[in-house]
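Researcher: Here's the sequence for the chain we discussed earlier.
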Amino acid sequence: MDTHRLTQCIIPLLVAIPLRLAAQYIEYTSSDSILIEHILCESHGKVADEDAMLYFGRQFLGVPYVGQTLEEGVTEHLIVNTRELDCTTFVETVMALYLCNKYGKTSFQAFCNHLRMLRYRGGELKDYTSRLHYFTWWGEDNEQMGFVRSVSTDGFPFTDTQRIKINYMSTHPNLYKHLRGNQSFVDAISKMEQASNGKAYKYIPKSLLGRSQQQLSCIHTGDIVAIITSKEGLDTSHIGIAVWQDGKLHLMHASSLYKKVIIDANTFYDYSRKQTSQLGIRLFRPL
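Model: Thanks. This is the structure I predict for it:
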């Protein structure tokens, strides 16, 4: 490890960055900023793009699973929390580190900028409705931004089609802190849901996830995996990162079952078979 470079990265954070940056209203702790810059300095110039998602994902193994960490405060603002992760914030954190590595950035500010661009429609944080709440929105927007590309084919193994029908947020506003009592937000979310409904996407059914690595060569280690659900009003139920181990497909994810970030010991096939509402997966590859 280049300790001189690491010191250069960390010392300014200890003396200059407050808990919240008023101009951008970024919420984080000093441990978050120190960890991010440490990871980026350690990896700088050493981690190839094709290895980066797995490398950065591994940095968070064992971090506790905690849901709804983005719901803090009265108004929408950028929240960085590396101490508690759910499936989405885990993938976003890893992806933001990937982008920093790709462009040779080692600062916490660069990480925050990439995180904002990944998390909000068009990269613009306006209010609660600008957050990419459904993964369909996340995938579409980040593909348009040039950060990921959707992976699919017209044939095997993408043999099933998902037709989007989302309305869960607008029909259950009482479950969302920032929608309760805010009809204008509910209406805005509903309008965006309706704009997505009817779109069709090819996906890999879970019955095929036990095939060999050669048969599933379209799936690369480091791909972002969106798990399709049969639950009414939703498009996906979980996301993670694909990992091939000894020719078997596994999932690196923030697990609500194990209460931490893990590379699941079960194969992806065995994991998905136990989840009756899971139908299969869509894939997104970091560019």
